[in-house]
């Protein structure tokens, strides 16, 4: 539940920030007549995202056991790719996303109402489809899918509340630190999703070693105990993973976490003399 709450919070806040930037631009430039178009684009994106999640769930139930395991494995790997891309993209784009959106919105207003609807739709649909795919992959492995979905919904609700508070100026959040901490936690979530995906490939017979365990902590992490459920939910730690699962988990987690937490080099300032031109 914590992992799905985190995904809902992170993805929800990204989408909320984008929408709040669009709304603020329209309000500050006295273009309020375009607000219904923004909300219309947002509504269509949300509905399509929900539909995509339902289609994934329905489609998987129509497959054979082997096909379902393979389908779940592929969606898990895709979810890992989306999570990885998301956290690194936001890490680099957070500082200039507002300016980029303002420029695109200004161009859209010049093109007409449909363009405003389209920019709002495109800004939200990416987050929505990512969320649908990631949550499908995570909920599929949950002991209580309804509770996991509820936790994700709670994360989205909190994100909307935070976004509204930021828009009204009632809440101040260090977004750089927020996205760094949640990004690091999502790397752990993604590593667990990759491990589950590898296990599904093994279940489908596409990878060997299904019975070759790396270790067995079942006597310590007995299934069903509260501490085992917490570790499994937060860090996707299972008591008896296979060798290939463990290798995939470590091969993803260590380099990605190091690269994500590594301080970024700031570009060296250009000397003033170098920017001067001579006649």
UniProtKB/TrEMBL annotation:
Keywords: Membrane, Transmembrane, Transmembrane helix
Bilayer topology: Multi-pass membrane protein
Cellular localisation: Membrane
Keyword Membrane: yes
Chief place of localization: membrane
Transmembrane segments annotated in the record for this chain: 6-26, 38-59, 71-93, 105-125, 145-166, 178-198, 243-262
UniProt GO cellular component terms: high-affinity iron permease complex
GO MF assignments: ferrous iron transmembrane transporter activity
Pfam families the record matches: FTR1
Membership in a protein family: Belongs to the oxidase-dependent Fe transporter (OFeT) (TC 9.A.10.1) family.
NCBIfam families: EfeU (NF041756)
Name of the protein: High-affinity iron transporter
């Amino acid at each position: 539940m914590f992992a799905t709450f985190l995904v809902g919070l992170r993805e929800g806040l990204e989408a909320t920030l984008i929408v709040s930037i669009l709304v603020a631009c329209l309000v500050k430039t006295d273009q309020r007549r375009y607000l219904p178009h923004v909300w219309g684009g947002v509504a269509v994106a949300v509905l399509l995202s929900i539909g995509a999640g339902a289609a994934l769930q329905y489609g998987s139930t129509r497959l054979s056991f082997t096909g379902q395991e393979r389908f779940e494995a592929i969606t898990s790997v895709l979810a890992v790719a989306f999570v990885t891309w998301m956290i690194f993209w936001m890490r680099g784009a957070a500082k200039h996303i507002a300016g980029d959106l303002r420029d695109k919105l200004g161009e859209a207003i010049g093109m007409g109402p449909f363009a405003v609807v389209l920019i709002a739709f495109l800004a939200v649909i990416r987050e929505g489809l990512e969320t649908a795919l990631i949550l499908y992959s995570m909920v599929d492995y949950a002991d209580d899918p309804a509770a996991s979905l509820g936790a994700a919904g709670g994360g989205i609700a909190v994100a909307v509340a935070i976004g509204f508070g930021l828009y009204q100026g009632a809440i101040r959040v260090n977004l750089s630190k927020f996205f760094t901490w949640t990004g690091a936690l999502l790397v752990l979530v993604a590593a667990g999703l990759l491990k589950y995906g590898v296990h599904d490939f093994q279940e489908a017979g596409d990878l060997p070693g299904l019975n070759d365990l790396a270790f067995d902590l079942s006597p310590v992490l007995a299934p069903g105990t509260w501490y085992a459920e917490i570790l499994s939910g937060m860090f996707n730690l299972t008591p008896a993973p296979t060798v290939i699962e463990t290798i995939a988990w470590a091969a993803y987690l260590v380099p990605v976490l190091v690269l994500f937490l590594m301080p970024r080099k700031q570009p060296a300032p250009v000397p003033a003399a170098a920017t001067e031109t001579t006649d």
